[in-house]
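Practice problem: predict the structure.
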Amino acid sequence: MGEIRAEIEDMVHRETRAWNAQDVEALVELFHPDMIWPWPPSSVDHDPATWIFALGRYNRERWKTCWEELFQTHRLIHNKREIRKIELSRENDAALAVVDIDTLWRDRQGRDNHWKGRVSKGYTKMPNGEWKLIFHTDVLRY
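Answer:
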């Protein structure tokens, strides 16, 4: 089980490095083809009944375009991430990583876009043994 936890930690760190480098290709390589990412309207809307899908089901080109636009219009000020928990399924084929993030983007007009709070990242083991991110909740404050 320690080996699987290390693989999941590596997935979280790979994602962090991709954000830091603003590497769109590295980001999209992490995602399962059936990835979904629901978003709350704000970081304090914990009731999932209020959540929406800003990007819809994973679509490589659409998601790349979204992040390329972010990278072109914003500067990354800082990106701090701390893994709080990794939970594995009994079958060792699914994992949940709980991560506290503090990511600050600033646009050209000096306005901040601050991602600060806790996210949940769900991973699934593919038939070839590779792990992929299959769901992600947006940032919530706890």
